[in-house]
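Hi, here's the filled form for the chain we discussed.

Project: internal
Contact: R.S.
Residues: 121
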Amino acid sequence: QVRLIESGGGLVQAGGSLRLSCIPSGRDWTGYTMGWFRQAPGKDREFVAAIAWGGSETSYDDSVKGRFTISRDDAKNTVYLQMNNLKSEDTAIYYCAAGSWSQRSNTYKYWGQGTQVTVAS
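And the returned structure, exactly as it came back:
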């Protein structure tokens, strides 16, 4: 069974940090791009960051550049999203996804259940 399990969400004060983790399982993930998306209440799901297989390329939405860092440890089969200087507008459910290199959600085939991040101002 293919699964992507996110963890690390929670409540943090504005200016604080969180690190999200995603562990995919259930198939060979070789070649897959891993991405993070988020969805705030009443808004569409939006791209946050992506990292290519092997970590050679990364991509970020402008709203998180310089604050968020995506990384992957293929030996541990884990993808991370380090989030620093968090703002209230970062409050959302964060989803891990696996698919093709893109910022478009429809190119990601596999999705996790999401982890809530709440930033208190």
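Let me know if anything looks off before we file it.
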